[in-house]
Design brief:
Elements lengths: L1 E3 L2 E4 L2 E4 L3 E5 L8 E4 L2 E9 L2 E6 L12 E3 L5 E4 L7 E2 L15 E4 L16 E2 L4 H4 L4 E2 L3 E6 L5 H11 L4 E9 L1 H13 L6 E7 L10 H15 L3 E7 L1 H14 L13 H9 L3 E2 L5 E9 L8 H9 L2 E8 L4 E4 L5 E2 L14 H23 L6 H18 L7 H15 L2 H4 L3 H7 L4
Parallel strand pairs: 10-16, 14-19, 14-20, 15-16, 15-17, 17-19
Antiparallel strand pairs: 1-2, 2-8, 3-4, 4-7, 5-6, 5-8, 6-7, 9-11, 12-13, 18-19, 20-21, 20-22
Helix pairs in contact: 2-3, 6-7, 8-9, 8-10, 9-10
C-alpha cells in the first residue's frame, strides 16, 4: 500500500470478474466509493480484510497490479436549488452541457426517515389522469409502481404524470433508457415549459448496466433535499426498476452468489425496499412520493421483481391496452392504491367513494356481458347498456390521455351513469342521488 492524504491506495488485486474485483484492504467501509484504474467502483462485500468492489464501467483492461484508491466515503451528490431543469448521469455529473452544480455535498444511499419524523400520508397528489385520481387516488408520501408490459407506453405515461402532477419538484430517474426515450423526456419537458421544476438522472442503454444501481439513490437524495430541507412536495419517478433489478443480478452473479427465484439475488427484497422506503410525508411539511415503473416478463406478475415490489409498495397501477377503444388504460381491476381511503371523500368531493365503486361495478358487469357474448349467449337489455357504458367509460375516464380535474371526473361519471342506467341500477346512497343525479 502507498500512502496519500485522505485516501488509501492499493495495487494488489486477487480476483477479477467482468463486473467486480477483490483485494485485501484495511479500514474500508461497506458502500464506500473507490476508483480502480481511474474507474469508479463501490464496495459491495466485506469479509474480514477481503474487499469486493463492483466496477461500474466494467473490468476490461484492468490487471492485478491496477491502482485502487479508496475515498473513505460513499458516492455523493451536490444538492442545491440550482438543480432545477438539469440533466445528470449516474454519478450526478451534468450531461446537458451546463455547468457543475455548486451546492452541499451529500452522501447517497443513506437510511430512510426515522418513523417518529413521519406523518400519516393524508394529502391528495392529483395527476390529472382519471384512471389514477378517480379509481386509485394517490397521496403524498406514497410509494407505488406502474406494472406494464414492455410494449406499453409507460415512459410516455410517466412523462404525462410529471407534467400534470400537483408537485413542487419532479425528480426523474431513468435506467436503461433508449436514446429515443431520453430525447422524448428531454423534449417533452422542454416544450411544455416545465423544465425548471424537473431534475433528471439518466442512464441510457448505451451506458454500463451496473451504473443503473446509482440512479435511484441519486434521485432520492436530491428529492430528500427539496422535501426535507425546503419543505416542498416532491415526486420521484423511476423507470425501469426491472432493469435496476437486472443490474443487481449481474453483480450478484459475478460475485458467485447463489441466485434465488427467477435468477434474482437473495437480497432483492431489501434492495428494493431500501429505495421505496424513502417515500415519506414529513411531520414538518414537505413530502417525497415515489412512482416507479416495473416492466413485466410476458405479463408475469408472479416474477420475483413485481412479486417483491407488491409486498413493499402501497398498491400498483396496471397499464393495459384496451382493444375496444385502441388505447392504453389504467386497468380498474388489477390496480390498487392502498392509501386512497385517506383522501377520497375527505379532501375530495363527498360522492367520490360511491361514484368510484359504482363505476367499477358497472364496468365489471360489462366484462361479464362481454364473456356471455363471446360464448354465444343472448344478451339482455341491461347487458347491452353495460357494454355501451364500458366503451364510454374506457374512452373518457380510464384512458391515460385523459387530463381533467377530479371534480370533472366525478361529474363525468354521474353523466355516464345517468346516460346508460336507471337510478335504481347504480346503487348509490339516496342522499347523494338527490344531490348529483341528473337524467339526460
Amino acid at each position: 500500500m502507498k500512502g496519500k492524504a485522505f485516501s488509501k491506495i492499493y495495487t494488489n488485486l486477487t480476483k477479477i470478474t467482468k463486473a467486480t474485483c477483490t483485494l485485501k484492504a484495511d479500514g474500508v467501509g461497506y458502500q464506500e466509493l473507490a476508483f480502480v484504474d481511474g474507474r469508479p467502483a463501490q464496495v459491495v462485500k466485506l469479509i474480514g480484510d477481503e474487499v469486493t468492489l463492483q466496477i461500474f464501467k466494467g473490468t476490461e483492461g484492468i490487471g492485478t497490479d491496477s491502482e485502487v484508491v479508496f475515498t473513505g466515503k460513499p458516492p455523493t451528490i451536490k444538492v442545491s436549488k440550482g438543480m432545477g431543469g438539469r440533466f445528470f448521469n449516474a454519478y450526478g455529473e451534468p450531461i446537458d452541457g451546463g455547468p457543475e452544480v455548486e451546492g452541499e455535498e451529500r452522501e447517497i444511499g443513506g437510511p430512510s426517515v426515522n418513523p417518529v419524523r413521519r406523518k400519516k400520508p393524508s394529502q391528495l397528489l392529483a395527476t390529472g389522469i382519471a384512471g389514477i385520481d378517480l379509481n386509485n387516488t394517490l397521496v403524498t408520501g406514497q410509494k407505488i409502481p406502474f406494472f406494464a408490459d414492455p410494449n406499453e407506453p409507460y415512459n410516455q405515461v410517466l412523462a404525462s404524470v410529471a407534467l400534470r402532477a400537483n408537485a413542487d419538484k419532479i425528480i426523474l430517474g431513468g435506467m436503461g433508457l433508449s436514446n429515443d426515450d431520453y430525447l422524448y423526456f428531454r423534449d417533452t419537458f422542454t416544450n411544455a415549459g416545465e423544465l425548471e421544476k424537473i431534475i433528471s438522472f439518466i442512464n441510457t442503454a448505451e451506458d454500463p448496466p451496473v451504473e443503473r444501481l446509482l440512479i435511484p439513490d441519486m434521485a432520492c437524495t436530491a428529492g430528500e433535499f427539496f422535501a426535507n430541507d425546503l419543505q416542498q412536495k416532491v415526486l420521484v419517478l423511476l423507470t425501469d426498476m426491472t432493469l435496476f433489478a437486472d443490474a443487481l443480478s449481474i453483480v450478484a452473479n459475478k460475485m458467485d452468489q447463489i441466485p434465488s427465484k427467477d435468477s434474482m439475488p437473495g437480497s432483492l427484497y431489501s434492495d428494493l425496499a431500501r429505495i421505496y422506503e424513502k417515500a415519506v410525508q414529513f411531520d414538518h411539511g414537505g413530502s417525497l412520493t415515489i412512482i416507479a415503473v416495473t416492466t413485466l416478463n410476458e405479463g408475469d406478475i408472479t416474477h420475483a421483481i413485481p412479486d417483491n415490489t407488491g409486498y413493499i409498495t402501497e398498491g400498483q397501477l396496471f397499464l393495459r391496452r384496451d382493444t375496444e377503444i385502441g388505447k392504453t388504460i389504467i386497468d380498474p381491476f388489477r390496480s390498487l392504491s392502498r392509501l386512497k381511503q385517506n383522501v377520497i371523500g375527505k379532501t375530495t368531493r363527498e360522492d367520490h367513494p360511491q361514484v368510484m365503486n359504482s363505476l367499477v361495478r358497472l364496468y365489471a358487469d360489462a366484462m361479464s356481458a362481454r364473456t356471455k357474448r363471446e360464448n354465444g349467449f343472448d344478451l339482455t337489455d341491461y347487458d347491452q347498456r353495460t357494454l355501451e357504458f364500458a366503451k364510454d367509460y374506457s374512452e373518457r375516464l380510464l384512458a391515460v390521455d385523459i387530463n381533467i380535474p377530479v371534480e370533472k371526473m366525478l361529474d363525468r361519471g354521474w353523466e355516464m351513469m345517468s346516460k346508460y342506467f336507471e337510478a335504481h341500477e347504480v346503487g348509490i346512497k339516496e342522499e347523494l342521488m338527490e344531490k348529483y343525479w341528473k337524467k339526460n
